[in-house]
Design goal:
Order of helices and strands: EEHEHHHHHEEH
Shape: globular
Distance between the termini: 31 Å
Strand order of the largest sheet: 1-5-4-2-3
Radius of gyration: 17 Å
Largest sheet: 5 strands, mixed
Number of strands: 5
Number of helices: 7
Structural class: alpha+beta
Length: 191
């Protein structure tokens, strides 16, 4: 595989990535994508990230954290991600939520729209409403926001490797991004 040997001099701290105080990760190596379904850049970058994850295979775990940014429609999108995870529908609905927002109906603006979306996915209205009003949902959304704050996320999409290395925005191919993630996932913390 192409990632067996990544040269340290290929990537430069401050240019390709920055080390941050970060967030504690339960597993490593891991790359975490901070995103919002409402973000046009995230929508356009989603296929690049999917291809990057495919290239990395099982060498690096991939996780997502939705951003709410205090905006009501973005918070509903965070909740959409939570519901997809809760009902184990993420692989089925992730891309479709992006398409719904950017190609069809626009952003979720009311909780009822979110409920109806998941009912269309085969989940009963009662289960969706119960999940939306649960303490677990509130805790998950709070956890998403805490992760973004600890990682110092200022914009999306953003990629964080091993909870410590924030990839700087730059146009890259999936292969280049996979090489950078592979390199960063092998670094020891510098503190």
């Amino acid at each position: 595989m192409m990632f067996n040997r990544v040269e340290a001099q290929s990537f430069v701290e401050g240019v390709d990535y920055v080390q941050i105080r970060g967030i504690p990760e339960a597993k490593s190596p891991i790359v975490r994508e901070f995103f919002s379904y409402n973000c046009g850049h995230c929508y356009r970058q989603d296929s690049l990230f999917e291809k990057t994850v495919e290239l990395l295979g099982d060498k690096v775990e991939f996780s997502r954290t939705p951003i709410g940014a205090g905006r009501p429609s973005w918070i509903l999108s965070q909740e959409a991600y939570y519901l997809a995870q809760k009902f184990k529908l993420t692989p089925q609905v992730h891309g479709n939520i992006f398409k719904r927002i950017h190609e069809k109906e626009g952003a979720f603006t009311r909780p009822e729209q979110l409920r109806d979306y998941f009912v269309q996915q085969g989940v009963s209205a009662d289960k969706v409403e119960k999940a939306m009003s649960s303490a677990d949902a509130s805790l998950a959304l709070s956890n998403y926001d805490t992760q973004a704050q600890l990682a110092g996320i200022r914009g999306v999409p953003s990629l964080l490797v091993n909870g410590r290395y924030l990839i700087k925005s730059k146009h890259r191919t999936a292969e280049e991004l996979a090489e950078l993630v592979s390199y960063l996932s092998s670094l020891e913390d510098k503190e």
